[in-house]
Write a structure and sequence with these properties.
Length: 528
């Protein structure tokens, strides 16, 4: 566990580290990006010996880090700390080597790993992208499944609550017109006129990010957009969309608790990135829908904060889905959901034996799960308990009170008066995989008044229970009911229709499935 202090005007980085071990430690090991060089390390006034070497790891965009193995003046006893004064430096250039060596085309790789410090533009993310502050962690490879994400997430959890003070400076002769912005809290420390000082506090869901450029700030009550002069119109369009979407998001999860920052990445196609209140993305987005998705995601990030990814990031994606649904209708909203459903189905088929608890939403470091699966979880909860109950539960969420994995479940149950233990057990607390619904049979019979009663038998061939819609299609429309189908069991749905149905369908796409090809059942004409 470490505390950092650094300044671009002062090349010495002060790192105070406590080693949580059961035996004395003679060595300290720290790593920075391979594009940076170690220059001098001291403990107090004493210069200490160290051995520097590079090794391959994908925690940095260069695909490697420079590691210093430091010999301490005396062994460090358990639970004791040492302050290391470190001088290092170098350049941060655009580099996507870790992606190109696993076969990603260079243009695509650079749209993802866009971090750089340049003459006219600077944007740098922290650990997991650029290791610009010292860390200590094992090597991880992007070719090894989820290893990089898991390694970085584990480090961030361990460092939660640690802090860093950083001062960013631009040479005075180059500082005119250049703005510096970061996702930390501006410090009150006395600094030079061409510098900005920030205090960062590490948590599991964000990393320190800084940017600099010839930005013009477009300021609104809850948002500031940093843009170039050429993108003034695009900045105004984003701010307008942000303010238009704000009431929709607020109705669901409450008003913004932080002031949102948007920094224009400039290059079209660069991958958006959000850390805390700060979003970095191209302003030249293709259409209003894209701007709405960015705005709703950013609004969620400044309105609800949780150390649990399935809540923090899952809700952000859920707000995007609701924006699409609100703007373009339910059918397009379901189409949007399926962009996330298809990868989940592919991953579900590829998984053999696994630890259901370790890969659950409350424990996973897999982005596919805590983004895509969590999105479906929130959407299914909305369909089961309704908007009023779910939004009330979300608005009452307090991260500081979240001491138990069942905290959110209890909030929703309190508002909805429904027992949701079965759902959370299969979808949140354990990874049971996905359901697989098929219609076994469908029997329509005419009843009094000329109506029809359709009896539909649905079987769940998968391993997770879900409440799923069942639709009977009739000329000119459809009628539907919802039914809970447990894994390995069958359930009966009964639907009243004005006309004889032509087809019955289980699942409208709102529930992720491992196989969507067996969800329809054609009903032959009465004469047959």
């Amino acid at each position: 566990r470490c505390k950092w202090q650094t300044s671009e005007s002062d090349p010495v980085q002060r790192v105070g580290c406590e080693y949580d071990t059961s035996s004395p430690q003679k060595y300290a090991v720290l790593q920075v990006s391979s594009s940076l060089d170690w220059r001098r390390i001291t403990v107090g006034a004493e210069e200490v010996q160290y051995v520097a070497q590079q090794y391959t790891t994908d925690i940095d965009h260069t695909g490697a880090v420079s590691e210093a193995t430091i010999t301490l003046p005396k062994p460090l006893d358990p639970k004791q700390s040492v302050a290391l004064h470190i001088e290092y430096g170098g350049t941060i250039l655009a580099d996507a080597k870790r992606l190109t060596r696993i076969g990603t085309p260079e243009d695509d790789a650079l749209r993802s790993d866009w971090d750089q410090v340049g003459d006219s533009f600077t944007a740098v993310r922290g650990l997991g992208f650029v290791t610009w502050y010292p860390v200590a962690m094992d090597a991880a490879s992007l070719s090894d499944g989820n290893a990089v994400f898991a390694t970085v997430a584990d480090w961030r959890r361990k460092q939660s609550g640690a802090d860093m003070h950083a001062t960013f400076c631009i040479p005075a002769k180059e500082a005119a017109g250049i703005s510096i912005v970061a996702n930390g809290t501006e410090s009150s420390a006395k600094i030079e006129s061409n510098c900005h000082a920030y205090d960062f506090t590490f948590d599991p869901m964000s990393v320190p990010v800084f940017a600099a450029g010839n930005f013009q700030p477009l300021q609104r009550q809850t948002l500031t957009v940093y843009h170039t002069v050429s993108d003034t119109t695009a900045a105004q369009e984003y701010a307008a969309e942000f303010e238009r979407v704000e009431p929709l998001v607020a109705a669901w999860i409450g008003r913004s608790k932080q002031h949102a920052l948007y920094v224009d990445l400039g290059a079209r196609g660069s991958a958006p990135y959000t850390s805390g209140a700060m979003m970095l993305a191209p302003l030249t987005q293709p259409d209003k829908v894209s701007r709405g998705l960015s705005a709703s995601y950013q609004l969620a990030q400044v309105s609800v904060h949780s150390f649990r990814p399935w809540i923090d990031l899952g809700l952000a994606h859920f707000m995007q889905f609701l924006t699409v649904e609100d703007e373009t209708g339910r059918a397009n909203g379901l189409t949007y959901l399926q962009q996330y459903g298809a990868p989940l189905a592919t991953a579900d088929k590829a998984v053999a034996e696994k630890d259901a608890a370790a890969s659950s939403l409350i424990n996973t470091d897999d982005e596919l799960l805590y983004r895509a699966k969590a999105l479906f979880v929130w959407s299914m909860l909305r369909d089961m308990v309704g908007q009023e109950a779910l939004s009330a539960a979300i608005r009452s969420y307090r991260a500081e009170d979240d001491h138990d994995a069942s905290y959110m479940q209890k909030l929703i149950e309190s508002q909805s008066k429904k027992n949701l233990e079965w759902f959370f057990d299969d979808w949140v607390y354990r990874d049971r995989g996905l359901p697989d619904f098929r219609i076994v049979s469908a029997y329509p019979r005419q009843i009094l008044g000329g109506q029809y009663l359709v009896t539909v038998t649905i079987e769940n061939l998968g391993s997770a229970a879900a409440e799923v819609p069942v639709m009977a299609e009739v000329p000119g429309g459809e009628r539907s009911v919802r039914v809970v189908v447990k894994p390995g069991e069958k359930a009966i749905a009964r639907i009243n229709t004005q006309q004889r149905p032509t087809e019955v369908v289980v699942n409208d796409g709102s529930v992720p499935e491992s196989d969507l090809s067996n969800n329809r059942f054609a009903i032959p004409p009465a004469s047959q």
